[in-house]
Amino acid sequence: MEAKSESSAGARKYHHCPQCKARLKRVYSKKREKHYWHCPPESGCDAWYADRDGEPVLRPVRRSEPVDSVECPECHAPMVWVEGGKFGSFWSCSRRQETDCTGTRDCLDPERGAEPTNITPDCPADESHGPMRRREGSNGVFLGCRKYPKCDATMEIDDALDDVEDADDAGV
Questions:
Q1: Do residue 115 and residue 69 come from a single domain?
Q2: How many domains, in total, are found in the chain?
Q3: Which of 24, 67, 70, 145 has the most crowded CB, counting CB atoms within 10 A?
Q4: What is the structure's pLDDT at 40?
Q5: What is the residue range of 8's domain?
Q6: Distance between CA atoms of 80 and 151, rounded to whole angstroms?
Q7: What is the reported pLDDT for 60?
Q8: Residue 151, pLDDT score
Q9: pLDDT tens digits for 137-148?
Q10: pTM above 0.70, yes or no
């Protein structure tokens, strides 16, 4: 389906990728039951955009190549770094498209980017709860257990970053 919408004058309006300037295509995902906008493969850009009322949301979502040292908490596949997501950057399962795996990991510091050590630690109260989530509270950003309110374990972001830096210094 071509990326077009009707304007008030009835003329066709095409949407172009802000990065590669290729004409976007609007595609429907049966699995997710919603539309997306995509640069055609021949453009070499491979950017995806969300759809809002038939118009692309021109905030690109970029995915890295799979990083073997960052493991999906659900299926143990390598994860990819995703930039430009609705809630910022995060780690996502590399098999998300071909399976129903919804494994994600938040990052400790969005400014650090796709470093393998830029992942939230597992819950200190019970590792079976999986990786902690970045949360924002009245005292700022912190890490909280995914199983809240069942588990109310929290950790300061600075403490987690210190642990990562200590591990980096020790060569772990």
A1: yes
A2: 3
A3: 24
A4: 82
A5: 4-59
A6: 28
A7: 60
A8: 92
A9: 888 888 899 888
A10: no
Q: Who contacts 75 (Cβ-Cβ below 8 Å, separation ≥6)?
A: 93, 95, 99, 101, 103
The torsion of the CA quartet 23, 45, 102, 161, rounded to 10 degrees, works out to -130
Q: Which two tokens stand for residue 9?
A: 């004058």
| CA 55/CA 92 separation, integer angstroms | 25
Question: Using alpha carbons only, what angle is made at residue 83 by residues 146 and 97, rounded to the nearest 5 degrees?
Answer: 75
Closest CA to 121 of 108, 111, 112, 110: 108
In this prediction, the residues of the chain whose per-residue pLDDT falls under 50 are 1-8, 172
The whole-angstrom separation of Cα 81 and Cα 116 is: 9
Q: Facing residues of 135 across strands? A: 142
CB 62, CB 48: distance < 8 Å: no
CA-CA distance, 7 to 57, in Å (whole number)? 17
